[in-house]
Specification:
Elements (H helix, E strand, L loop, with lengths): L19 E7 L6 H14 L4 E5 H8 L5 E3 L8 E3 L1 H13 L3 E2 L6 E2 L34 H23 L4 E5 L5 H12 L4 E9 L3 H11 L10 H18 L5 H4 L4 E6 L4 E5 L4 H11 L8 E5 L4 H4 L11 H37 L24 H4 L7 E5 L3 H6 L9 E4 L16 H7 L1 H9 L14 H17 L3 E6 L1 H11 L10 E2 L4 E8 L2 E10 L4 E5 L6 E2 L12 H9 L6 H4 L6
Parallel strand pairs: 1-7, 1-8, 2-7, 8-9, 11-14, 12-13, 12-14
Antiparallel strand pairs: 3-4, 5-6, 9-10, 11-16, 15-19, 16-17, 17-18
The structure holds 6-O-phosphono-beta-D-fructofuranose.
């Protein structure tokens, strides 16, 4: 990898340096597009690509209603202007109404989107200050003004996306339904004038009516329906879906004419259709998306028990466990045995809550034709049994091929756990510095030591086989895809740099923070895939009780201040590191909210 420009996507077999990619999402609402988009962004960012999501729904909500805007100009270069007359009307209207703060904009104004709003109120259910709501009529393909506004918002977001790419971004994701041939043609034509930007359409199709019904119910919690009675929201969302279905045309020959690349993800990757995929990056995206699954499971990550080398502060090497490490190994086996039972009970509880949530809806139903679930009648009942999440009985344990991890799993019952030793999980290789303490490195190789402090992610240890964190990410790429594919829980018993790299993928922690995450021995991190991100829980080994205590996960992933020990001069990188302290997203932030 090139030191001058050491992005993972740069040089060699991966891509040429100027390669940029636009991923355009396609699909009806409630088909899991936002789930795919967030996962994809997390993966590509972790691989080292500058990746950004451009969500059209968010912009639409800001744009307000069609009546509030003048559409100025034509084509893709127009902007939306809020009309003065309408803001005047809003102000007058407000004076006559009771002032309440809006949940979205916090400004006092008149809102009808309270929990008492019933069906039929959706039209009026918008905050007069921020205009964030759109009822189903806004999505009627025959509503010309609204349609023009929707097209315009989509193209404006596309312009923002292109500007971001021109300013140095690498992969941009246009998150919208893009469900008509007309819209997709406009995007293709707009992209023609851009050089070095590839296009990939990703269409999400769902044929499982139970999944769609569940997604529809979840949509009642979307920003469009804040404060709206869930039944009113659901009825409106189904009406919106019917409007979309009338205009929807799946990707096909119309796009093939333009020789574009596309892939269709059907039923969360159960079936994948890939058309004309040519770029390296695009094939990585398709391969990644093929390996998704929604089964309930946990990815546990821990470091090995204390090793002989750990106890004297030596890095790398291949020593066995110390007596402390042995105790940890025994306690870990007991803990995971117990957690397996607890997790099954937790999923049962989630099933129960899901059933209650679904049952609270009145218009959900079952229908033989999946693409028309929007028209379900209220007296049809949902098939709960197929919605229930089932925990797979298998459980795998993956270790590195170094003694300290293999010894850490010696107390697991091989009848109940499939144990695999994987070379890719070996610790970062310190080359010429293997087996040294940090103090020895600082004294014997001061320049190396300082260089690493200044740029720990890209710094590569000297000597044959010496690695950087960037190298480690590449080494773990296949491990990540395999973890996404597997449908049961896995415990990874690995090393500090490996645990940092894995956790930064699962918890969407920027690569700039990755090498400085504090991950001491004796902690177990559990990442539970959920629809809107991974849910993190953390346990700490307690030597007094010889057991594990759960700790607050929001404070568990800390950034360590790196110390420049050799030079007193303040480097820009060291102050930048200080600035980054506490910038880690909290688990609540990483498990983001619903989106259209
Ligand atoms: O000290 C334990 C260890 O796993 C070493 O083997 C490894 O070189 C190091 O941690 C990785 O941590 P850092 O990247 O902070 O040096």
């Amino acid at each position: 990898m090139c030191r001058e420009c050491p992005r993972l996507g740069h040089s060699d077999a991966r891509t040429d340096s100027d390669h940029k990619l636009v991923v355009v999402m396609v699909g009806l609402p409630a088909r899991g597009k936002s789930y795919i988009v967030k996962k994809l962004k997390r993966y590509l960012s972790w691989l080292g690509f500058q990746t950004k999501i451009f969500n059209v729904g968010d912009r639409r909500r800001l744009a307000g209603s069609a009546d509030d805007y003048e559409v100025s100009g034509t084509g893709t270069t127009t902007r939306l202007e809020r009309t003065k007359s309408n803001s005047g009307k809003t102000a007058m209207h407000n004076q006559q109404q009771q002032q309440q703060p809006c949940a979205d904009c916090n400004k006092p104004g008149t809102q009808q989107h309270t929990s008492t709003a019933r069906q039929g109120d959706m039209q009026a259910a918008s905050c007069t200050q921020c205009d964030t709501r759109h009822s189903s009529t806004f999505f009627d393909p025959d509503n010309k003004k609204a349609k023009q506004l929707r097209e315009q918002v989509a193209m404006e977001v596309f312009e923002d996306l292109l500007r971001w790419l021109q300013a140095g971004g690498q992969i941009a994701i246009h998150d919208a339904t893009n469900s008509t041939i007309e819209r997709r043609s406009a995007l293709i034509n707009r992209l023609r004038s851009e050089t070095d930007v590839n296009l990939l359409f990703v269409e999400s199709i769902c044929t499982d009516k139970n999944i769609i019904n569940r997604n529809i119910r979840l949509k009642t919690q979307s920003p469009d329906y804040v404060g709206i009675d869930p039944d009113v929201a659901e009825a409106d969302f189904r009406a919106r879906l019917r409007n979309y279905e009338r205009a929807y045309r799946p990707i096909g020959t119309a796009e093939e004419k333009y020789d574009v690349q596309y892939c269709k993800i059907i039923d969360v990757g159960k079936k994948v259709i890939a058309y004309n995929i040519q770029g390296f990056l695009e094939s990585q995206v398709v391969f990644y998306l093929m390996n998704m699954n929604l089964d309930p499971r946990v990815i546990y990550i821990t470091r090995h028990g204390e090793s002989e080398d750990n106890s004297v502060g030596r890095i790398g090497g291949d020593t066995g466990l110390s007596s402390n490490g042995e105790r940890y190994a025994k306690a870990l086996a007991r803990f995971i045995d117990r957690r397996r039972l607890e997790f099954t009970a937790e999923v049962d509880e989630q099933n129960h809550r899901l059933e209650m949530f679904m049952a609270s809806g009145t218009s959900s139903g079952n229908n033989s034709e999946p693409e028309s679930v929007s028209s379900h009648s209220s007296n049809q009942s949902i098939d709960y049994s197929s919605l229930r999440l089932k925990v797979k009985p298998d459980f795998e344990i993956w270790t590195s091929m170094l003694k300290r991890t293999m010894e850490t799993v010696e107390h697991f019952d091989p009848q109940r756990y499939r144990i695999k030793n994987i070379r890719s999980l070996n610790e970062i290789y310190a080359g010429r510095c293997e087996g040294m303490t940090y103090e020895e490195i600082a004294t014997q190789f001061p320049e190396e030591f300082e260089a690493r402090q200044l740029d720990k992610f890209y710094y590569r240890y000297p000597g044959i086989g010496g690695e950087s964190y960037a190298d480690v990410v590449l080494r773990l790429q296949q491990v990540i895809v395999e973890l996404e594919r597997i449908r049961h829980s896995v415990l990874l018993v690995t090393h500090r740099a490996m645990a940092r790299t894995l956790l930064s993928y699962f918890m969407d922690i920027p690569t700039t923070h990755m090498p400085d995450m504090e991950l001491p021995l004796g902690y177990v991190y559990s990442c539970e895939p959920r629809p809107f991100g991974n849910f993190l829980r953390v346990w700490r080994y307690n030597p007094d009780t010889d057991d594990f205590d759960e700790i607050d996960s929001s404070t568990a992933l800390k950034i360590r201040y790196p110390k420049i020990m050799i030079s007193d001069r303040k480097s820009p990188a060291s102050s930048a590191h200080h600035d980054q302290h506490n910038l880690l997203p909290s688990p609540a932030e990483t498990a983001c909210s619903a989106n259209t």
